[in-house]
Design brief:
alpha+beta, Beta-Lactamase, 6-stranded mixed beta sheet, 6 strands, 54% helix, Sec22, transport, membrane
Amino acid sequence: MVKLTMIARVTDGLPLAEGLDDGRDIKDAEFYKQQVKALFKNLSRGQNEASRMSVETGPYVFHYIIEGRVCYLTMCDRAYPKKLAFQYLEDLKNEFERVNVAQIETAARPYAFIKFDTFIQKTKKLYQDTRTQRNIAKLNDELYEVHQVMTRNVQEVLGVGEKLDQVSQMSSRLTSESRIYADKARDLNRQAFIRKWAPVAIVLGVVFLLFWVKTKLW
């Protein structure tokens, strides 16, 4: 069965819409929603280039498609047919683009299209029972294939983002430390220059002072 549905803008991970009734029958629903948000964050950084992917997480699977810089994601039971999951997402995509395409890029607040929940709930009901004649026909549709959709584990997918974050943080730290070392090196060079030429400057100053006093006296 379809358990969760969320839609987000890929460029910045901003959530645009979701099924408001989703997750009520799921234990740890908030945990899985946080995983979805982490996936959106990874996508916003360009860390998953596949436009269609299935991501396994516990007893469920996230399926998502990316189209027009928008990610349409659903979480289903592992036993739920992948083919139906992606056709469900296609239906959402087609309607969402038809109704909201002009406002997607300018949306500035989370869940700006929350009213789309009405269509999500109506469409989800059509896909819940895999034994209906309609869904059996979709499963037998040879023109729509999902065999080449990649399947990965959620720890693997999110782990990539964590490792890249660590590399980024390390790079920033090294850059900062390099600046500190460079500043210290300049200070040391300045001090060495002063120690080397200060005695000479003092001697020259004394000589100049004596010469000036002598000229004044004579």
